[in-house]
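// run 5 | inverse folding | seed 20
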């Protein structure tokens, strides 16, 4: 009986099933995502606390009213809505990549991973344009040119939180793009075919979906409230 227990434990540690009947690597990814969610949660709770304890706050319809090539056209939240749509669609292609992995469809995995990578790069490009645009309007850490909704002078809390939290999220998107590029290269080299499974694609998918989900909360806090 004792020998059986030791053998089962060794099998789990060597990449078998965990005590929770979940593959060990996937379990570790869930632990990482849980810890990362605490970090994002702390950022957003801090933002919410400062936001709703302040007497005034900039109107997001005034701050985020431009998009590339619009000139002086007032189009609140159009650009960030496009960014959000791009990220959501990249999550869809990631789901398709994971499904193709379950089917041992190498070509499908590579195709949908490539689309996911392009979606991530497009989102990062949009975020870079938005940051550049805000910078040229005078916004940065420690600088806030946008008045409160009531016309009074605003503190730098808005811009400090905005650039910190969206920058932290952008770093996660960039990390996800790098991970997916590595997954694409490994797929092309038949690494997963030799292993007999595409579990690594599923783990990368968990990370990518987490990044997309976090953006929903960031989008709500900064662009809608």
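// decoded
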């Amino acid at each position: 009986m004792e020998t059986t227990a030791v053998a089962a434990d060794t099998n789990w540690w060597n990449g078998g099933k965990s005590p929770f009947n979940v593959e060990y690597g996937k379990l570790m990814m869930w632990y990482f995502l849980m810890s990362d969610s605490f970090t994002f949660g702390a950022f957003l709770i801090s933002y919410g606390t400062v936001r709703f304890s302040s007497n005034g706050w900039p109107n997001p319809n005034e701050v985020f009213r431009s998009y590339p090539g619009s000139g002086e056209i007032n189009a609140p939240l159009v650009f960030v809505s496009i960014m959000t749509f791009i990220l959501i669609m990249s999550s869809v292609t990631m789901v398709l990549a994971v499904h193709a992995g379950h089917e041992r469809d190498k070509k499908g995995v590579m195709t949908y991973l490539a689309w996911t990578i392009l979606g991530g790069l497009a989102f990062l490009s949009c975020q870079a344009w938005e940051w550049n645009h805000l910078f040229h309007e005078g916004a940065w850490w420690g600088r806030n040119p946008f008045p409160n909704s009531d016309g009074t002078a605003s503190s730098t809390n808005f811009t400090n939180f905005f650039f910190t939290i969206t920058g932290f999220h952008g770093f996660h998107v960039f990390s996800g793009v790098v991970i997916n590029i590595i997954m694409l290269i490994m797929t092309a080299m038949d690494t997963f075919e030799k292993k007999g499974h595409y579990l690594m694609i599923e783990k990368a998918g968990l990370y990518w979906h987490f990044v997309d989900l976090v953006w929903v909360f960031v989008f709500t806090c900064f662009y809608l409230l």
